[in-house]
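Most newcomers find our protein records easier to grasp once they have seen one. Each record describes a single protein and holds just a pair of labelled lines. A learned vocabulary of local backbone shapes supplies the integers on the structure line. Nothing more is needed to start thinking about how sequence determines fold. The record below serves as our worked example for the rest of this section.
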Amino acid sequence: MGAVQAGTSGFTRIYIFHLMAFLPTGKIMGYLWRPRYGLLFIGWLYFVAPNSSNAEPRCLADPHSASDESYGYKMRGQRCEGELKNFVALTDGVSLVGYQQGAIAFDLRRNQTLTVEAVGDSHESAYLRAMSVTSRARYQMDEEVVPLQSPVVWPMDVLKQAVEHSANGALDVSTIALSACSHRCADIADTVYWPVRALATASGDRELALFVRSATRAVDVTATLTSLNGDKISAKASAAANANLISAIRLPASLKPGRYRLSITAFDDELHVAMPAFYGTIVVPKEVP
């Protein structure tokens, strides 16, 4: 899940090549069989190589597309956050931009931070992502490999600046949705999504909801969940989805805990044709305190 893969960097390969060029093979093996040198060599391969250009970037979005402002998207300690320059359509169809448990309220006037957590098995971890993607503004916050059921304190200063400076209210907190996901939150069928909740949420608010957006106006937005034993459950969006509004799909409270294959379908309201569907996997968590 986004883990850095071990491999030999170009610098490492050059170092080994020169070592072999100037020392007889037998002498090299003799050095490597010695505990001290063998451990150093293993350490070189496992700790230097992963820091090569083969390592995956920390930020989920491309920092080169960040806004030039102080609130532009970049690494900020353990997270990446800020405004991105240009709107980029996620797909030609509908996209899942959030999966939440309970309402998440943003009070930028009173609150300096917002504490959230990904809900699921505490032995698993995922990427945490908050995003607002509209035709007028694009904002994102993400943090890599967050343990589930582990509180994450999210400072509101960058989001507050971005909202205050957005032209004509282009960035609105009502368009921000959160999710936790595998595979660097890639919009592919293999990605697994866990719900995110705010710890300040009222204890009785356990409703699970998917948040969907579309590059064009989409109607009849429907989520179909398939359990491991083949049972299918469908839920429809409360409103049409479009480029400037996220549409919520409330999931039935009767859903049993477990993993479900998810497909989201919709129709293009202008062309009157089916849009490319979204596919992924969601986790319905067990009841947590």
